[in-house]
Amino acid sequence: MSVTTAVFQQGKRMRFLWLAVPLLLTPILLSQSAWPSETLPRQGMEFMGSAFIILCVAGRCWASLYIGGRKNRELITNGPYKYTRNPLYFFSSLGLAGIGLTFGSLAIAAFYFLFGYLVFAYVSARESTALDGLFGDAYREYCHKVPAFFPRLRRSAGDVAHQLSLTFNPVVLKRTAIDSSCFLLAIPGSELIESLQLAKLLKPLLQLF
Q: Any transmembrane segments, and where (predicted)?
């Protein structure tokens, strides 16, 4: 497979995520939280879920400031990219976990995060092949220093010395902000589904912790 083909297929792999939406909705529609809405554990999970979703939106926009309009053209190693090679994927997985928490379920949150991790790990592995062909030794050195998914929070001595001036594409940033805002729909969505369940219009088949 050529580098051009590998890069081109990234769009196809991302469209797969939208096709997976029915799979992700199934556990939400067929279950309910084992914790009543007024209990402290449930409220704590909902708060944490909302925090994860907000962090997801902010993190994706942060990454877009650096990668927007530059993907596959420049090797970006600063901003969030000095902590993880795939900040967009990491924050997206965090947002998926947040969706599960807003519905009051640790099990759904874990399933969503694992789903995101596995899908994005596959996508990033394919992208890595293309980036290696595009940037060669520079990319391999970057891979040696920065983890692929989970952020490395400590900074190496050379981080500051290699800072680049920040220029961003406002169109790409706007599109990322709009796309990321879809995660926020989980917050009112969880309230709607709970209301439908209380009204007996949506009958859950099982309870999940």
A: 47-67, 88-120
Q: Which residues pair with 32 in a beta bridge?
A: 207
21 domain-assigned: no
Residue 75 lies in a domain: yes
Average pLDDT over residues 7-15: 52
Q: Does the pLDDT of residue 163 top 60, yes or no?
A: no
Strand partners, 207: 32
Q: Decide: 98 and 45 in contact? Cβ < 8 Å.
A: no
Query: What is the token pair recorded at 14?
Result: 């991302």
* Least confident piece of the model among 132-136, 160-164, 190-194: 160-164
Instruction: Say what the pTM is.
Output: 0.85
Q: Give the Cα-Cα-Cα angle 168, 78, 159 (nearest 5 degrees).
A: 150
2 inside domain: no
